[in-house]
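Two proteins were folded this term; both appear here.
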Amino acid sequence: MNRRALGRGRLLVVLGALVTLAGMAPAWWRLARTNATALSGSGLEGAGIIVFLAALALLAVVTLPYATRDGNSSLDRPAAYVLLGLMAIVAFLFRVFEISRFTNLGLPMEAPGMWLSGLGLLIVVWGVADLLGERPPTY
C-alpha cells in the first residue's frame, strides 16, 4: 500500500474549506428595522448553497485518495481543485452582490459569517496555488 503525505497545499485546502463551512451558519447580513426586530440571514441562502457544496466537494476530493485501496483518485488533480475553488469564489461574490443590493455590507462584527467564509476561500486559493506549484507524484 503506497500512501502519500497530505502535503501543504491539500492541508491548506482542507483548513480553508473548514473555515468556509464554519462561516456558513453565522449571520451574513443584517437589516435593521424601526419598531420591529432586525432581519438577518446566513450563508445557507441563495448562492451560498453553492459555496457550501463546493467546500464539501473540496473536502471530498482531498479525502478520496485515502479511501481507496491503492491510494490514488482520478479526481485528486489540481484542475479539480481549481474548478471547485472557482465555483465557490464566483458563488460567494454573487451572494455578496445580492446582499449589497438590499443592505449595506456589514463589518466583521455585524456579518461575521460572510467575513469568515471569505477568509476561508482565501485560504483555499492559497492552497490551490500551492498545489499548482507542486510536482506530480512518482509511483
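Next, the second protein.
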Amino acid sequence: MKDKFIIWTNYIDAQKSKREGRKISKNDAIASPTLGEIQSAAEKLGLRPVIEKEKAYPREWWGSKGRILIEKGKQKNKALKEIAREIRRMRK
C-alpha cells in the first residue's frame, strides 16, 4: 500500500471541520461526497481508484462509510482538490 493514498469522504466534505478530518479548505471542499462520486471523479482523472466499502474512518469508527485508494503520483492535497472539483462538475 506504499504506492497508494487513502481517501476518506471526510477529507473533502465541506460539512466537516478540520478537526473532523477535512483536509482541504471549505471553498475547495464539497457537501456530502459519496464513495461513488469520489470513485467516478478519480477514474475521470486517471487515478485508478480501488474501493474498500467495509472500512470505517478511524475518527468515526461506528459508521462504515468506506474508503478509496488512489495511486500516488501527485501531492495528496492537490489530488483531493482535483477530485472535489471534478465532483462539483459532475453534479452540475
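The mean pLDDT is 92. The beta strands are 4-8, 50-52, 67-71. These notes refer to the second protein only.
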